[in-house]
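DM from R.C. (forwarded with permission)

"hey, sorry to bug you on a friday — could you get me a structure for this? deadline for the figure draft is monday and I only need the backbone to look sensible"
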Amino acid sequence: MKNLLLICSLCILTTSNMQAQHLLIWADVTNKAIKTSFVDGSNITSIASTQTSLRRVRVDHINQRIYWTEGGSGKIKAVDFDGSNVTDILNASSNIAMVAIDATNNRIFYTETGTGLIMSSNTDGTNIQTVVSGTASVQGLAIDLINNHLYWAEFDAMTIKRVDLDGSNQVTVLATGTAIIDMHLDIPNGHIYFSERTNNKIQRVNFDGTNLIDLITTNDVKGAFAIDLNLSAIYWVGEGNNGFINKANLDGSNQSNVILATGATLAGFDMHFDPTLVSIEESKNRSFDVELYPNPGYDKVKISASPFEKFDLKIYNMSGTLVRENLNVNSETEVDINGLHAGVYAVYLYNYQKGAVTKKLIKY
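My reply, with the result:
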């Protein structure tokens, strides 16, 4: 009964707040602006205006910063979500095409078109290092911190490749035979999502290059896109003079239009899930104290329950689904949350003598 009540309360709380937790973020090339909206296309806002040669966009979810590349100038720029603190991060001698953010370690990975290099730096542009050399027109770039991998797509060579984050152990994951434009990872499920220009598709393949499937095959020119594992959705940008943003389920079903930007060319695209806006009623118990740390967490979280000797631990996602269960664990325990999607979870602790407590856990 306690578990049922917890699940019901989660469903009620998340239904009213779900859209406010997510933002669509894109580059409007025609109007020279970085823009955002809610996931239903409402509340369109210009975050950074008078920006030239806008290309790719990526989000730092932890520090709530938007990064983008400026085509032809070799620049990476950034702005806070509220439009403040517009900053030139890098000014390279070669054109920068792609950028990917490692917010956990405050690093940026980026590609130089003219030199064929994949580089990394601190998020302030310092401590520049070469990661990979000899690439062919990289148009997709994504980081897997769990498995210590960097993935990229080579437009001209029509391949997806992978290295360790230190640049070692390079392998070709997939020879696609198509010109790839953008890429995102579903790390918990071991999937690479990518868009390609040859046949105008969005496709998915396993991390090992197996089980390639078509997801979106409608006849529009697909460019940048993003996936939202919390909403189980794909959003993509249609390029051309009348740009648009469309959405579908992760399997490609239920396609619909979200934003129609008549007369505007749209470029880079990403999404933001804001777990701090999710409401969870944290229960308290005078018989004991519970601490979760670090919270937000990325790979592991430590749970301290005093003065328990033993307790049952259950973690639920926002749909009320049980995703972790450890029974009869010690009062000081560590839980592996590597395989969980980024989002908000309810941690439920129970001791038959002391009662129960619910705590909110944020997973990045």
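R.C.: lifesaver. The mean pLDDT is 85.
me: no worries. Helices lie at 2-17.
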